[in-house]
Design a protein that fits this description.
InterPro entries: Spore_YpjB. The protein is mostly helical and 261 residues long. The protein has two domains: 118 residues, Four Helix Bundle (Hemerythrin (Met), subunit A); 96 residues, Up-down Bundle (Four Helix Bundle (Hemerythrin (Met), subunit A)), CATH 1.20.120. It is built from ten helices and no strands. The radius of gyration is 27 Å and the shape is flat.
């Protein structure tokens, strides 16, 4: 029973650690709020204020965001790159207002993808992405190269906004498959006279739909699940062993009684 008690205590400590880990994410929520405020300032063309807020984000992120290894290296890399692009957009005098908003929006969505525990914000762009792709597909089916190029450029611009978030929420294999198909239709523009091209567009459309219909990722560290599984196995083994010893002891006790009689 001592072994069982110790094992049970270990499991309790593991799940207590999970609770602490979840509550430890509060600094990320504050950083997410700052990212949202920076986006709102950008939409109102208050670029200097937005820039100052992003710089403050960077300082606070370096202190809180990477503390205790809460984020993976991939998440750190994606968010840092997205932050850099947003900051560069606010200081580039040659960039259009629309492109500035797009890049800051991309950063804001990436920040949310890291801090959100439920449905991420980038899923809300499903209508824009799918509508843009449908226009690309219609132009291809009609054989209209000029319209195809125009709609494809618009679709790629919209897709770029959510791409950093996808890097956070999707597996590398799933994202690579999606990106390769998008790269293909961009690289071979106008080559949609064959039936294979229509099939390629259908395949890409299906992948896009699946991405938006199943956006959730498993937030739990796989190594943690491994520990829980092993611990559970130990509990089962311990209970089985205790039960077996008890059964054997009772059997021997009955045998001794029979011999005495």
């Amino acid at each position: 029973m001592r072994i069982f008690a110790a094992t049970f205590l270990s499991v309790c400590l593991i799940f207590q650690g999970l609770t602490v880990f979840a509550s430890a994410g509060s600094p990320l929520k504050e950083l997410d709020r700052m990212a949202d405020e920076a986006l709102q300032l950008t939409k109102f063309s208050r670029y200097e204020e937005a820039k100052s807020l992003l710089e403050k984000f960077a300082m606070q992120f370096s202190e809180e965001g990477v503390k205790d290894g809460r984020l993976t290296m991939d998440e750190l890399r994606v968010l840092t790159a997205s932050h850099h692009e947003a900051l560069r957009a606010l200081t580039n005098i040659h960039m259009s207002d629309e492109e500035r908003i797009n890049r800051v929006t991309s950063f804001r969505l990436a920040s949310d993808a890291i801090s959100s525990t439920h449905q991420p914000m980038w899923v809300e762009m499903e209508t824009s992405v799918m509508k843009g792709f449908q226009e690309v597909k219609n132009a291809a089916l009609e054989g209209n190269k000029e319209a195809y190029n125009q709609h494809l450029n618009s679709f790629l611009s919209t897709y770029t906004v959510i791409q950093p978030s996808l890097k956070i929420d999707l597996s590398a294999e799933r994202l690579q498959k999606l990106d390769s198909k998008i790269t293909y239709i961009d690289k071979y523009r106008g080559d949609f006279s064959s039936q294979d091209w229509a099939g390629h567009l259908d395949s890409l459309e299906k992948d896009l739909q699946q991405v938006f219909s199943d956006p959730h990722k498993d937030e739990t560290d796989p190594s943690l699940w491994w520990v829980i599984t092993i611990t559970g196995s130990i509990i089962v083994s311990t209970l089985s062993y205790v039960g077996w010893r008890k059964y054997k002891g009772q059997k021997q006790q009955r045998k001794r009684k029979d011999l005495n009689h």
